[in-house]
Amino acid sequence: MNSLLSAVSVAVVCLITLLVGGLGLRLSRATSDFYVAGRTVSPRLNASAIGGEYLSAASFLGVAGLIYDRGVDMLWLPVGYTVGYLVLLVVVAAPMRRSGAYTLPDFAEARLGSRRIRLASSVLVVGIGWLYLIPQFHGASLTLTLVTGAPDWLGGLIVMVVIGLAVGAGGMRSITFVQAVQYWLKLTALAIPAFVLLAIWFRQGAPAPVTTTAWASPFAAGGVDSHPLYWTWSTLIALCLGTMGLPHVLVRFYTNPDGIGARRTTVTVIALLGFFYLLPPVYAVLGRGYLPTLPASVRSDSIVLQLPATVLPGLAGQILTAMLAGGAFAAFLSTASGLAMSVTGVLDQELLRPGLARATGGDASEIGGFRVSAVLAVIIPYLLSRVTAPLGLATTVGLAFTVAAATFAPLLMLGVWWRGLSRWGAAAGLATGAGGAIGAMALSIVGGPYDGWLGALLSAPAMWCVPLAALVTVVVSVATPGSIPSGTARIMVRLHTPERVALARSRLRD
Description:
There is one protein chain. By secondary structure, the protein is mainly α. It has a single domain, classed as Sodium/glucose cotransporter, CATH 1.20.1730.10. Helices cover 79% and strands 0% of the residues. The protein contains 23 helices and no strands. It has helices spanning 2-27, 31-36, 43-54, 57-70, 76-91, 93-98, 104-112, 115-148, 154-204, 213-216, 228-245, 247-253, 259-276, 280-290, 303-311, 315-360, 366-387, 393-417, 423-446, 452-459, 462-479, 488-496, 499-509.
């Protein structure tokens, strides 16, 4: 019965995704509809959509698993995930919308006037997107296997097919509606079981959470690693600045009508995320009380899905488990759809469209190339997910945040606020950030684990990678003033002129 209910719940979520995504097929006609939903998305709808795509497998399952496993040090994870939008609001939200770009590489080329910087940005967008997609497929497989006993390849395959169809059907218009609906689906699916389990815990006087000194005390020896304070600060930097550099997050701000709408969207997002992130710690604490230990073969990521049946044996527990399984799939689908959308846009603009134009003499369908790109955007990371050993969901997503923080965050902050940014400086900063973050994490995963400071610096490199990339960008830019784009002043005025002022000037000219 439990397997049947969970399978039905997952099927309903997938069906809702396809039906809502089908609306985009009727509404999307122009290129701007596919890329930025015609730039007509209201702040409230856009905020729900951002909440839908941002709250991934790491948020729904991984955060609770890490807090359950490693202790209160991990409470900084939801703080970092949420505060990242505050940084984005203050620093780049409105200027990015005023840039008029479709994608992050569009902005890079417009700001620096360089095809090479655009190409480097495109490679990073695809790399970060695929790195973030892999744990979504892993999480879907983990969830479906745990609650239904399905083969471990099936969950990821379902997500791949559904997302490929939704993105290809109507592009950003489809994905906007899909993600907005899925935010409320997964919030409901996580909140109702949490309140029920809490009520039972208080009513029955269930055992207090089983803790150890390291688990219950922040920065205690034996916590995250031998340097928990460094790890925490480095993780906060990765999450706060990585949010700014995530391509699937940035592209959503291009869908607002103007910069004012982008700011209002961000404020609403912070409220939505803040409420959601109150829930994963509840599951972690309850798990410590009802399931103080897990079998060696069971990952802590599964604690959310295992709690209902443990607390409520029988039909009631099965219904709650099915609800959580559906919510988890909504998380995988919504995040994967945003990632696939950002990767699809770059693959279409940089690879498919130029290639098809050369092959057909310029007669290729723009929409056809977009849909082929949507297939490539999901099938390649799914295949990679089948040949890579899964790490913890939150840990894997953290890798994508670190790369984004070390590459795009310095580029965006300096590109938006500093006139002295040069082409050579931007290129050097991207290479330094990408090389440092990817190299450190590769050494940590392949050759580790390492002890002491070496292990801390390699496993959490954002603390030194981000400032190093920014410093290199500034130093090289100062040393190469000749490569500062000639149109910098004009671009900076466009980025920072409020819409009301620009509209008044336009009326005066008319």
